[in-house]
Amino acid sequence: MRRRQRQCAALPLAALLIASPAYGQVRGMYSPGSTLSAGGSVPDPGLSFIDQFWSNTSDTLKGPRGSALPLEDSVTVSSNTATITYVPDTRVLGARLALSISFSTTRDSFLLRDPLPGGPSLSGGGAGLTNTNVVPFDLGWQFGRVDVQTGYGFYAPTGRFVPGATDNTSSGFWTHSWQSGLTWYLTRNKATQISVYDAYLWNTVQEGTGIHAGENDSVDYSISQTFGLTDDARWSLQVGAAGYGQWQTTENRGQLPIREALKYRVNGGGITFSLSSPFRGLFVAGSALHEYGARNTFQGRTFTLTAGINIS
Fold first, then answer.
1. N or C, which end of the chain is more exposed by having fewer CB within 10 Å?
2. What is the pTM of this model?
């Protein structure tokens, strides 16, 4: 009987986390683990292109105390983001100025089911264009062994959003962000580096629902070593340990009181790598991270695969 009561109590909590119109706020707009290395560095002057596939899969939903809720669930969130960045030759306040725009498509699915016979279930998912990220300015400084960058950006809800629908691909609200990062080279030849990247996001009111999703902060970090693969080191491999943390800093507004009080957080840890070539800065990178310490959200695994090139 007690087990049954726990399951019945857990289902409304999970439904509020997943099926509410603020479904996108189960996690923030920034995909954690997207910037695990060179967090303080901006590209060289010119035009560059980066394409990143990001995927998070989970079959565990954590509650307020970090315990897994007794529900059968499966969540997959995948996105492909194409980013174009332009860095002019001129400097602003002694820093390089980077301007970028990122177009993303997403494919999401979720299933939540009470394991007892006849129990309720929720499912849904969508695919298509999602929010577009615009960074009108990002300033980067280089100080010997330290690179530092900071700037402002916003996410525009350019994808499909219908209040109450289970196949939305966009958040239905605008999100502002302030990002900062640091790359610290521990050796003179810059082969060993520590990278930290922070993105703080705050949201507007969701269209058609009156919900105001809470603010959130994300930190990506790594320590890595670069190895020359050829005598002239024009081909190189960077490998290291990496991680991230993402947590909600303010409560939601416009929902039931129990939902407003639930602030999420999650951590991830794993490995990252990057293979660089001499051909127009062409590189291929990837990462695999396992999540832990989740509260009021899903806990799973995150994978990324990234490729980039200097266009001019």
1. N
2. 0.89
What is the C-alpha end-to-end distance of the chain, expressed in Å?
Answer: 67
Q: Which residue has the tokens 């990496």?
A: 242
Distance CA 113, CA 120 (A): 6
162 is a domain residue: yes
Query: Is 31 inside a domain boundary?
Result: no
In contact, 171 and 131? CB cutoff 8 Å = yes
pLDDT tens digit string along 76-103? 999 999 999 999 999 999 999 999 999 9
Domain count, the chain: 1
- Residue from 215, 218, 256 nearest 17 by CA: 256
- Asked if residue 29 is part of any domain, the answer here is no
Distance separating alpha carbons of residues 64 and 130, to the nearest angstrom: 29
Q: Which amino acid is it at 197?
A: Y
Identify whether 220 is part of a domain.
Answer: yes
Backbone angles phi, psi at 262, to 5 degrees: -90, 105
229 phi and psi angles, rounded to 5 deg = -95, -10
